[in-house]
Write a structure and sequence with these properties.
By secondary structure, the chain is α/β, with parallel strands linked by helices. About 45% of the residues lie in helices and about 15% in strands. A seven-stranded mixed sheet has the order 2-10-9-8-7-3-4, with helices on both faces. A four-stranded antiparallel sheet has the order 11-12-15-14. The protein has a two-stranded parallel ribbon with strand order 1-13. The mean pLDDT is about 95. Bound molecules: pyridoxal-5'-phosphate (PLP). Pyridoxal-5'-phosphate binds next to helix 6.
């Protein structure tokens, strides 16, 4: 056979189903300095604890270099697992260290859960809309994704009926300051959701990277902490990306021991373990209550930028538009008048040097084309006002 006619690579069926994330493509354009970008999902570098991280790495490399630079256990660095367990226990969810798996960002946790639970054609449930990175991650394993209808209060547990839940492998839920909408589930909805999950034997994945970024009001109890009283099975994902820095790629997953064992086998096959140096440095930063001092600074920064964006939206956007008023997190979700296509609007917005993420890729099915996600955290107040004014002019011209 003539080898020159052979294509250079023969891809698996799975790789043929993979597409590049719409958001990554948009971000490439919007990273140009002159564009006012509300498109990013990045935390503000002004909130990174640079000095604390620098000195923590130095301490680890001075005090324990032979451990920090060596291979480590797949489940994670024991003191960090214990810290996570103690922290969650203090917040009302009794967790032990062997129920914690340290992961290389909670994104890896999503991938491991997809590997463990999804066969081609398995049914899984997500919110409408939901986190694009989870849709992508689960999508690799070729599930049937069904959406649970949601409203201004987030996922509507009244809609979790036998038709939807029977045979579903899990429900993926974002209870706090959801990505992309900024919505938060009330306590009563949390309890109802867990009662339904318990009734149908449906495991719930609670993804909560933003819960500590609350700017107003009292924290709602986590689904994990409520699970014991309702009898539901909850797997919790947490992340250090939004409370410290995402470049360290550190998160955790809490699950019953049996499942931790299964997920650890997949993690071992994937990356053996999360970098010991990073785990030890993060433990060094947080072990003496640093987050309690640090988080109020990040919350204050985001609270102000969120306030400025809401004020600008109130002043500039047309009456026909609606938007969320988040109590924390990084995102505002806007719904424009029916008939406005936010993909077409984005093309015009980029010509006017302002950008956002159109809402469609956040839907597992039946996207609403007139929606968009705005992030306020990496843009200064003056540029927020200017960017929202430019967008408002374009929207009014489209209406
Ligand atoms: C809802 C949600 N889950 C998970 C992740 C992934 O975070 P990590 O940096 O911990 O991998 C993100 C990142 O933005 C997110 O928004």
């Amino acid at each position: 056979m003539d080898q020159s006619s052979r294509p250079p690579f023969t891809y698996s069926e799975r790789s043929q189903g993979m597409t590049s994330s719409a958001i990554r493509e948009i971000l490439k354009i919007t990273q140009q300095a002159e564009i006012i970008s509300f498109a990013g999902g990045l935390p503000s570098p002004d909130g990174f604890p640079i000095e604390e991280v620098r000195s923590a790495y130095a301490r680890v490399l001075t005090d324990a270099p032979r451990v920090a630079l060596q291979y480590g256990p797949t489940e994670g660095y024991a003191p960090l697992r214990q810290w996570v367990a103690d922290d969650l226990t203090a917040r009302g969810a009794k967790v032990s260290a062997d129920e914690v798996l340290i992961v290389s960002g909670s994104q890896q946790g999503l991938d491991l859960l997809g590997k463990a639970f999804i066969d081609p054609g398995s049914r899984i449930l997500v919110e409408t809309p939901s986190y694009l990175g989870a849709l992508q991650s689960f999508g690799q394993y070729q599930p049937e994704i069904d959406s649970v209808p949601s409203d201004e209060g987030g996922l509507d547990p009244e809609r979790l009926d036998a038709d939807l839940c029977t045979h579903a492998r899990f429900l993926y839920a974002l209870p706090n300051f959801q990505n992309p909408t900024g919505r938060t589930l009330s306590r009563s909805r949390r309890v109802k959701l867990l009662e339904c999950a318990a009734r149908f034997g449906l495991p719930v994945i609670e993804d909560d990277p933003y819960g500590d970024l609350r700017y107003t009001g009292q924290a709602e109890p986590s689904l994990l902490s409520l699970s014991r009283e309702t009898g539901a099975s909850v797997i919790r994902l947490g992340s250090f990306s939004k409370v410290l820095a995402p470049g360290m790629r550190l998160g955790y997953l809490v699950a019953p021991r049996e499942l931790i064992g299964k997920l650890a086998q997949f993690k071992q096959a994937s990356d053996l373990h999360t970098a010991m140096l990073t785990q030890m440095a993060v433990y060094e930063v947080i072990k003496n209550g640093f987050l309690e001092r640090h988080l109020p600074r990040v919350q204050a920064l985001y609270r102000e930028q969120c306030r400025v964006m809401l004020e600008a939206l109130d002043a500039e956007f047309p009456q026909s538009a609606q938007w969320t008023r988040p109590l924390g997190g990084m995102f505002i979700w806007v719904k424009l008048a029916a008939g406005i296509d936010c993909h077409a609007l984005l093309a015009r917005a980029i010509e006017h040097k302002v950008a956002f993420v159109p809402g469609a890729p956040f839907y597992a099915r039946a996207p609403e084309m007139n929606t968009m996600r705005l992030s306020f955290v990496t843009v200064t107040p003056e540029r927020i006002r200017e960017g929202i004014a430019r967008l408002a002019t374009l929207i009014k011209a489209s209406g």
